[in-house]
Specification:
The protein is of the alpha+beta class. Helix content is 45%, strand content 20%. It contains nine helices and five strands, in the order E-E-E-H-E-E-H-H-H-H-H-H-H-H. Helix 7 crosses helix 8.
Amino acid sequence: MIEYISGKIISNKSTEIILETNGFGYNIKVSLNTAQKLPAPGSLATLKTYLHVRENGIQLFGFAEEQERDLFLGLLSISGIGPKLALTLLSGLTVEQIQKAIHTQDVKALSSISGIGKKTAQRIIVELKDKIALPEVIGTDESSVVAAEPKTEVEKEAILALVSLGYTRGQATKAVAKVQKIHFSEKAEEIIKRALQVI
């Protein structure tokens, strides 16, 4: 297993980054929360990693913190949850919010994320409640570190990020339009998080 990778960030597309090290460019899937914590392209960064191997391909996943990787691996151990769904959950909620939901058995919070039904949420709680530590301080909504961009540009970025998670362009466009109408935001990460709950 590749424990971690350090290198220069070449691009950051919210759920996918390119990290260059020793002449190699690694395509790494990340959650929105990790993407927000990374420095700007051109800067150096270190990511904890997990190499997912399957019959039809190999994908590298990156995490800003060990805690997020541990939770990701815990989610993968649950029947019916693959890397895509685990990353969607980690993008829609912070690690602390997921931990709190598990320990308080908050099925509603977990099932608010697209792809996580009531039964899956209950399975997450049952299988991880004794494996996931509850932090002393539960985080609240994090402020985005990404500077606001013109409305059309951030919406385009949000749609591309949702498409990279496996949704169709139509689904992504409809979800972004819906959340922007209800809660307008000029921050792509905020738009994506809200869209993941309605898509």
